[in-house]
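Reagents: none. Just compute today. non-specific serine/threonine protein kinase.
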Amino acid sequence: MARERIIDGRYRLGRQLGEGAMGTVWEALDLRLERQVAVKVVGSSAVGRDPRAKERFEREAKLLAGLSSPFIVTVHDVGETDFGDGLGQSVLYLVMERLHGRSLEAVLAAELPPLVEVARWGEQVCRALAVAHDSGVVHRDLKPANVMVGPDGLARVLDFGIAAVLAESTDHARLTSTGVVVGTPSYMSPEQIEGGTVGFHSDLYSLGCVLYALVTGQPPFVGPSLYQLLRQQMESAPVPPGERRAGVPAGWDRLILALLAKPPAERPGSATEVAERLRELSLTAVAAETVLLPARPVVPPAVYEPTRVDPRSVLLASCPHPDGGRLPLATGQRMRLADVLPGAESCTVRVDWRADDGMDVDASALVVDGAGRVLSDEHFVFYNNPEPAGVGVTLWGDDPEASFTVRLPELPAGARRVVFALSLHEESAPGRDLAGVGRPHLRLLDAERDVELLCYGFPAGPSGMTGLTVGELVRDEDDWVFSAASVGFAGGLAEIAETHGVAVEAEEG
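Predicted 3D structure written out:
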């Protein structure tokens, strides 16, 4: 019978979940709080004989514990202990939330995800990086294996700060003589390879490599030897992703190639900027069928995988509105109404925007079934049908904002979603698009107190589009959930209506 292994008298280790250059990850039970956790163990071989490794490890763990984001794995504890292997070796350990899902590495082993998914995951990774960078934390080893996608569809970033501890604990002579590289060569920035200053721009380069892999199925550089791979990272220009995967829009090429610029100063200015660009790309991405890769004997990596994060009190994303936002949501984020508005039977959804002179913008809502089709034409709520009877949604307010009162008990039993949209009257501004509309923005408010509960929006509307969905309410069993989901429509209000099953009469010529 295997001997029970307990760390520091508190964490009972179970099966090993993963192993890499930076240590091993174990499933464990926190005996004090009676909860499942994951324990990452970093052995002496990783930090050498550096007497300050523990100090830096604890420093990084404290920084991580202070990072408040649903897109970063939560750190619970840190310490040093005898691993109990009979060798008397001291190890450093980090206790994290136990995750469920699969890594992006596992995703890439089986499929090329749709671009709309890549944009959503990429934005969420950027939100994690933005929070970390604002706190002075640089990841240093961002790669598909360090990003987990949970059952809730959210991407979460793992192993912040661990690479920094190892980098400071590995002297250059030992690194050169043994060939050990702190980081993952296929995803490392040129300055990291050259031993230069590693800042947040280095993480953006690694993000570019990750996005490249998700779009094309392989990293930008795949040299036949480590030496050639590192030289390519430092000197070679990557092939545009659109040349390796048919149908990739030019905007993806521009963003990814900008992230992969060799000089750090030529990369985008921040993770937040990249998040906004990915959000714009998601609006025009087609949720096409996933591209399955040819069958091959793939052994899924033993990875640990995420619990659902309760995001009720966390700032999720930047808010483009000048008045800020109480709880800004990132694309793909979902929030239960019961968490932000417990017991309420109604709420107000307010949509606002800033349009150039002469541009006429309208808001609308569609009450749709599980297939995304309106229950009837009366369930299309817009300027010509603001107060339909028996629908549960009414429209009111004046430009440049519109308000919808949603009475949840009055929504029909067949209603599965309420989709909110903005559209441009092309007659008012021929040849224009929503790029001329600033801060398209949705707020969910307490109907009784007119107090904002959460918000979702963009710095500007998408170019080439005259219609845009800006979020939706989704029925989830017996509860309603707000979902931060947006899609752009080149055909404006008519295309939005037709897409959701409204019978649109063509105008007589």
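Residues 241 and 247 are 10 Å apart (CA to CA).
Action item: order primers for follow-up constructs.
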